[in-house]
Amino acid sequence: MRKLLAVLLALVVPATVLPGRPAAAAPASVGQVAARASVWHVVAPGETMPSIARDSGLSAADIGRWNQIVAPYPVHVDETLRLTPPAVPLPAWRTRIEPVTPAMVNWNPALHCPVPPAALRRVWVSYIDLQGAYHDGSIIVHRDVAVRVQNIFLTLFRWRYRVMAMAPTSVNMPDAPNMAIVTAGYSCRPVGGTDVWSEHAFGTAIDINPLQNPMLRGGSVSPAGGSYYLDRSRYLIGMIHPEGAGRAFTENGYFWGGQWRSVKDYMHFSLTNR
């Protein structure tokens, strides 16, 4: 986990210098110099493509082209924009829905899980990882929300929101230290510390980028390493904010655990607000 966190910190303030850019005609500010040395920019409230281009010493047309965004170049809070030319363009988003077998969810009748595998669906969606690479990932949810989940991840992809990892991790993130950092849906388990079924056990909850959007309960932070992201006034790759990527969920009928009072579960979205 320490090695993984070090990689994430490097992504926050990357050091790749833009090649072939002419020197500025006038002295640049410290902020402009830092921006020009960045590979990525995470959109914060109030920013526009023209303002990002100005602060980066680039043109809106270049940033738009590198991110496959067409004029008038709309941007969204929590979007991660590439500030250098990509090696290859992103492929088109794709998706499919398939039935779930008992083996896919390690089904055990003795656990008396509230939803059988027949009521679940495996939703495949394209996503962009923290390094800007394209993947096909899957998430298991209740069949009644499968199409809604497709819509959510299509929106996230269009907004160039980054997802750390999705199943199958053997393909998408072979060095993942544990599943606690993976974006996922269904899990036959109770709410921590109780005997009440979690909304994940019904396939109606999603945890997205748990490391960048940890749960804070009292003084406990989960998953380990998530403390770095507890300052929610920052806008870092993979973080979710209510005015940003969170809207992809809330505008599709989900409630956000980041708005709870006694517990802050920034990764958690559910249909019942539980």
Short description:
20% of the residues lie in helices and 17% in strands.
Can you describe what's shown?
It is a single chain. The protein is built from seven helices and eleven strands. The protein folds into two domains: 14-82, LysM domain (Membrane-bound Lytic Murein Transglycosylase D, Chain A, Roll), CATH 3.10.350; 95-270, no CATH class. A hairpin with a 5-residue loop joins β4 (120-128) and β5. It is of the alpha+beta class and 274 residues long. The model is unreliable at 13-28 and 30-34 (pLDDT under 50).
Largest pleated sheet: 3 strands, antiparallel
Number of domains: 2
Helix content: 10-25%
The tally of beta strands, per DSSP, is: 11
Helical element count? 7
How much is the radius of gyration in Å? 20 Å
Terminal CA distance reads 28 Å
Strand content: 15-25%
Order of helices and strands: HHEHHEEEEHHEEEHEEE
Shape: globular
Structural class: alpha+beta
Average pLDDT reading: 89
**Low-confidence segments:** 13-28, 30-34
**Within the largest sheet, what's the order of strands?**
3-4-5
Notable traits:
274 residues, Membrane-bound Lytic Murein Transglycosylase D, Chain A, three-stranded antiparallel β-sheet
